[in-house]
Design a protein that fits this description.
Elements: E1 2-8, E2 13-19, E3 24-32, E4 40-45, E5 51-54, H1 60-72, E6 85-92, E7 103-104, H2 107-115, H3 124-137, E8 143-147, H4 157-160, H5 166-172, H6 181-195, E9 203-209, E10 213-219, E11 222-226, H7 248-257, H8 261-270, H9 273-277, H10 285-293, H11 297-321, E12 326-330, H12 331-336, H13 338-345, H14 357-360, E13 367-368, E14 377-380, H15 385-397
Parallel strand pairs: 1-6, 6-8, 9-12, 12-14
Antiparallel strand pairs: 1-2, 2-3, 3-4, 4-5, 7-8, 9-10, 10-11, 13-14
Bound molecules: adenosine-5'-diphosphate (ADP).
Length: 398
């Protein structure tokens, strides 16, 4: 069965068509600038050439129609008709406490996702626009919602509760949820496979280090803690997000700079992280690594603070699980930067960690990058959130 995986944002829509049985990618692409001038669709069949077509996309219905036209195109398409698409898997950012696993989408599910929109006002409504557009154009095709938060619903209360009046949890569900759950789940399962062990017996730490970044503690296959909170702003220093800070800073900066709450939150989300630490030099770790290698202060400051924060979380989660068997690196930076792995592992001597420099220099595959004698295994596992969504979807509709 072919599964269409959709990741819909407010003005963009990423898609992949995956054969759920062979788990092979059939085609992928994205629509950009939906509802804005200069919209375009990028489409690429597996092994084929990338096609970029500029065409008006006033709304998401049009975008989905163009995706389906591209997939069924007589010359460059990959399926003969829409009947060859068995189901659609939608990435939904926030499932609140309502969803601890993926679900087949019904009207009740859509209402429940709408109710979670308070918690992710930028993401959930955009995700639902994608669901509605697909329902309009493919009525009768089953759809599944796969949530970024679901995997972390196994966190115990002591890990998810904030030290603020309990009534805010009761009234508004203010608590830690965590994100990147699809990736943390996929990578932890895969790591168990690479280690040849039963995930039910392993204590793993997964470091998803991309532009957005989070760490999770996965004990015996279940998430027991993760670094993002009510929103993705908490935790690690990220590309442009601050991560953890003293909340008093918000009032302090607002007061000193004459800014509103909204303006300060915008700064913490968009101008902070390694971008802020490098004095607005770059949020891209490739630039920061160059700067660090040249001994310049911008990249050095940002890279060191980033690595230190990850190492602190690894220490915290080792304590939370009373030990750790394997530490996994994934996502853009975690998969592609031997340097950042080396800097982070430099803090882990107390775990007996020893990196194998030759293994650590490789990329593009599942790898154990620690030496045979290393006290804790270090792994690099390329994440594949789309495949994980296709698997979840297939499991529910087959
Ligand atoms: P997201 O999905 O959150 O946008 P990604 O997982 O695509 O992020 O990761 C993007 C980050 O990965 C960027 O900061 C980018 O610089 C970094 N990255 C990608 N390739 C490399 C590389 N070869 N070396 C260092 N960093 C890299």
């Amino acid at each position: 069965m072919n599964i269409l995986v959709i990741n819909c944002g407010s003005s963009s829509l990423k898609f992949q068509l995956i054969d759920a049985v062979s788990e092979k990618l059939i085609a992928k692409g994205l629509c950009e600038r939906i509802g804005i001038d200069g919209s375009r669709i990028v489409y690429q069949p597996a092994g084929g050439e990338k096609q970029i077509t500029e065409t008006p996309m006033p709304d998401h219905n049009k975008a989905i129609q163009l995706v389906l036209d591209a997939l069924t195109n007589a010359e460059t398409g990959v399926v003969k008709s829409l009947s060859e698409i068995g189901a659609v898997g939608h990435r939904i950012v926030h499932g609140g406490e309502k969803f601890a696993s993926s679900v087949v989408i019904t009207e009740d599910v859509i209402s429940a996702i709408e109710e979670c929109s308070d918690l992710a006002p930028l993401h959930n409504p955009a995700n639902l626009i994608g669901v509605r557009a697909c329902q309009n154009i493919m009525p009768g095709t089953p759809m599944v919602a796969v949530f970024d938060t679901a995997f972390h619903q196994t966190m115990p209360e002591e890990a998810y509760i904030y030290g603020i009046p309990y009534r805010y949890y009761e009234k508004y569900k203010v608590r830690r949820y965590g994100f990147h759950g699809t990736s943390h789940s996929y990578v932890s399962k895969r790591a168990a496979g690479v280690l040849g062990e039963d995930i039910g017996k392993l204590k793993l730490i997964v470091c998803h280090l991309g532009n957005g970044a989070s760490v999770s503690a996965v004990k015996y296959g279940k998430s027991v803690d993760t670094s993002m909170g009510l929103t993705p702003l908490e935790g690690l220093i990220m590309g442009t997000r601050s991560g953890d800070l003293d909340p008093a800073i918000i009032e302090f900066i607002a007061h000193k700079e004459g800014k509103s709450l909204e303006e300060v939150m915008q700064i913490l989300n968009k101008e902070s992280g390694v971008l802020g630490l490098s004095d607005q030099f770059s949020s891209d770790f490739r630039d920061l690594e160059d700067s660090y290698q040249q001994g310049k202060p911008e990249g050095t400051r940002a890279m060191k603070a980033f690595a230190y924060r990850v190492a602190k979380y690894i220490g915290a989660y080792t304590a939370a699980m009373n030990g750790v068997d394997g530490i996994c690196f994934t996502a853009g930076l975690g998969e592609n930067s031997p340097l950042i792995r080396e800097m982070i592992c430099g803090y882990l001597g107390y775990l007996g960690v020893a990196l194998d420099p030759e293994q650590n220099a490789k990329r593009g595959e599942d790898l154990v990058v620690s030496t045979k004698d290393s006290g804790t295994k270090i792994l690099v596992i390329p994440t594949n959130e789309e495949l994980a969504i296709a698997r979840e979807t297939y499991a529910l509709v087959k």
